[in-house]
Amino acid sequence: MNQKLSATVRDHSGVLVRVLSTLDGFHAKHGTWPTTLRLYDAGISALVTKHLTPRGFFQLHSKVLLEEGPMGDVIAMSSDGRSFSYSTDSGSGAPQLAHEWLGLELPADNDV
Hints:
Largest sheet: 4 strands, mixed
Distance between the termini: 6 Å
Strand content: 15-25%
Strand order of the largest sheet: 3-2-4-5
Number of strands: 6
Shape: globular
Number of helices: 4
Structural class: alpha+beta
């Protein structure tokens, strides 16, 4: 299997999956998108170096303020105090809309 290249996403796995799930969970829980994403330092680094292209990282950062947080957790927050934590909030079965909101083109797997 080859992965079709994307202008915004290099690797749709790991930290990026958790980030998108957290944003989707926040949206499903609160009916709006968050303004801040709290992510541990190594997670931010992974987004920059492994998961997103420079354009993809710009698109993420243009929608949410990135804040360094405790190791391991990903938390989406709004300016009025609402939040959704990847680690502690249960999955909502939310539609996968965060990548569209961010303008990220997820790579498609193609059989060769």
